[in-house]
Write a structure and sequence with these properties.
Structural class: alpha/beta
Radius of gyration: 28 Å
Number of strands: 16
Helix content: 40-55%
Number of helices: 27
Shape: globular
């Protein structure tokens, strides 16, 4: 027995911040002080609060040391582990209250979280099967094989209300049931670990922190649907995850938890790993299966759906990492336990990768129904530098943006769909008042242009044309007509989706990649940046009739009047300068404006201001 356990994050984020060297230094210092038999160092997965890595937690005290450096190790060993004195300067600020060290569960970042999929991440050594077993590992598999029929397992999953966490939200139990209904000499289970959305790292963290959970869940699924073989499709850019998966699979085989006659039940199940090259399109299930088969990753028509004809032409059940991570706990604790969390139609919890303009970047797992405001302002710690929240982008390139006016929206599948967004796999990128929505749309569109598989022209050509139009706008050369063209092109791409004879979309990508463009135009009004440039003209100069008349001629005065009150005086000055520098007017109008001495003085004053806004506005010509 050890008197102290030192848990050091070994996830990708902390590893990149030199946590392996911290572990090495710890072990050396502990040995030097003669504490090897008293203190154990454990490399864990991600603790979630990535903004403060490398993270070290010392038990039994529960001291949360943040941003630890190699040079801090001797002090920690000498003071804390040897003399019992907590090194307060390294403690996470939120764990200190009136010189008393609080538990991490009581901090703002953790107290509203409910960890189900992430329950073992940051707690156990992911490379040690014995630690996983000590935390009820493989008990769910044993329960299924010794107490339940396959039909009963499926019913438990159906009753729990678990829906796919990969983005679509299809009921998991129903998916399993469809595969089980189809008789075949061979069936497959596939885990989609091809996490391609920018800013998403949920699945990677589960694989790095709790790989045995996925192995166990896939075996349970195999038993339920009648499959004897499974594949984990994971991108090669996740070397830590791949290594730990390989270790987990090998250990499970050595313990008889994979292979022939598991738990003497007569059930056989084996697992394989396939590495993806990082193509975004392979996140789509049929493209993923095509890639596993050794072919170029391109989507294929549906129906037939994978439950009927999937991998190698056999019935296949495919779920993503987070979906599988919930399964063992549902089996052990029951469907009612899981269904007690969340909302009426969205049960359980959801993991989000919280990034962007937010204080506490990292990984969070919250009950469905938690509001965006709670995630951003409480768990996330708010927007840095006193900036205002502008929007949160969910669902990656396939998703949409939630504006500040909808911050009190409860996050679940139906609510996000109702406001024009989607859950997606769980990336949540926060933007502040300085972010330009045109630039955001351009960023995601550039990503989808690069990631197009090239099979179909609406995607291959249409998205490139959209991107070119956004580049034109951000270069200050856009016109109002370009906005109409963008809208028309988005509609055309949707209407020209390649469809099979049954009228079913062959690929999700062409529909979704333009959604971020449509969403920004819908939520923020396609003329938002023009409004922001021009509204201050009315705020400062509305008493000058010639200016108002000019704006009326341009058919934008009513639009501008509606947004005058949205900006404070500092914003007005800044955006008026943008207006002056970016809006081109004809010579007659220029003469009319300059005739007024007040306008001339204001223009001269604004010409001295240095503008650093990222937004470039449309020209009126």
């Amino acid at each position: 027995m050890y008197r102290s356990h030192v848990l050091v994050c070994g996830g990708t984020g902390c590893t990149s911040a030199n946590s392996p060297a911290i572990i090495e230094a710890l072990e050396a210092q502990i040995a030097e002080k003669g504490l090897t038999d008293e203190v154990k160092v454990v490399q864990t997965g991600c603790h979630g609060l990535c903004a403060l890595g490398p993270i070290m937690i010392v038990y039994p005290e529960g001291c949360f040391y943040s941003e630890v450096k190699v040079e801090d190790v001797p002090e920690i060993v000498e003071e804390h582990l040897l003399k019992g004195r907590i090194v307060k300067r390294l403690l996470y600020d939120d764990t200190i209250h009136q010189d008393v060290v609080k538990s991490i569960e009581s901090t703002d970042f953790y107290k509203k979280q409910k960890r189900v999929a992430l329950r073992n991440c940051g707690v156990i050594n992911p490379e040690d099967i014995d630690e996983y077993i000590a935390y009820d590992g493989y008990q769910a598999l044993a329960k299924c094989l010794t107490e339940y029929t396959p039909e009963q397992v499926i019913q438990v999953i159906k009753d729990s209300g678990l829906r796919g966490r990969g983005g679509g939200g299809f009921p998991t139990g129903r998916k399993w049931e469809l595969a089980a209904m189809n008789k075949a000499d061979q069936k497959y289970v596939v885990c989609n670990a091809d996490e391609g959305d920018p800013g998403a790292f949920m699945d990677r963290s589960v694989l790095e922190g709790d790989p045995h959970c996925i192995v166990e869940a896939m075996a349970i699924c195999g038993y339920a649907v009648g499959a004897t073989e499974g594949y984990i499709y994971v991108r090669a850019e996740y070397p830590i995850a791949v290594n730990r998966l390989e270790i987990a699979i090998q250990q499970a085989k050595e313990y008889g938890l994979l292979g022939k006659n598991i738990f003497d039940s007569g059930f056989d199940f084996d697992l394989h790993i396939r590495l993806g090259a990082g193509a975004f399109v392979c996140g789509e299930e049929t493209a993923l299966m095509t890639s596993i088969e050794g072919n170029r990753g391109e989507p294929r028509p549906r129906p037939p759906y994978p439950a009927v004809k999937g991998l190698f032409g056999k019935p296949t059940t495919e779920n993503n990492v987070e979906t599988f991570a919930n399964v063992p706990q549902i089996i052990l604790k029951g469907a009612d336990w899981f269904a007690s969390m969340g909302t009426e139609r969205s049960k359980g919890t959801k993991v989000f990768a919280l990034g962007g303009k937010i204080k506490n970047t990292g990984l969070v797992e919250i009950p469905m129904g938690t509001t965006l405001r709670e995630i951003v302002e409480e768990i996330g710690g708010g927007i840095p530098n006193g900036k205002k929240f502008k929007a949160a982008q969910t669902g990656g390139p396939s998703g949409g943006c939630i504006p500040a006016s909808l911050m009190d929206t409860e996050i679940d599948y139906d609510n996000l769909t109702a406001i024009g967004c989607m859950m997606g796999s769980g990336g949540l990128i926060v933007m502040d008042e300085d972010n330009c929505m045109v630039d955001i749309a351009k960023f995601f569109l550039e990503f989808t242009v690069d990631e197009s598989c090239g099979k179909c022209s609406p995607c291959r050509i249409g998205t490139k044309r959209l991107y070119d139009l956004l580049c034109k706008i951000t270069d200050g050369k856009g016109t109002l007509e370009d906005l109409d063209t963008i809208e028309e092109l988005c509609i055309s791409i949707i209407s020209c989706l390649v469809m099979n004879n049954e009228g079913t979309h062959e690929c999700f990508k062409r529909r979704d990649v333009i959604s971020i463009v449509v969403d920004n135009m819908r939520v923020y009004n396609k003329r938002e940046e023009l409004q922001r440039s021009c509204c201050i003209v009315l705020a400062f100069l509305s008493k000058y009739q010639d200016v108002v008349d000019y704006l009326a001629i341009m058919n934008i005065s009513g639009m501008l009047l509606s947004c005058v009150t949205e900006f404070n005086e500092a914003d007005n000055v800044r955006y008026f300068a943008q207006c002056v520098s970016n809006i081109s007017v004809n010579e007659v109008c220029c003469q009319q404006l300059i005739q007024d001495d007040v306008v001339r003085v204001l223009l001269q004053f604004l010409s001295l201001i240095h503008i650093s806004e990222p937004t470039r506005h449309l020209r009126i010509s």
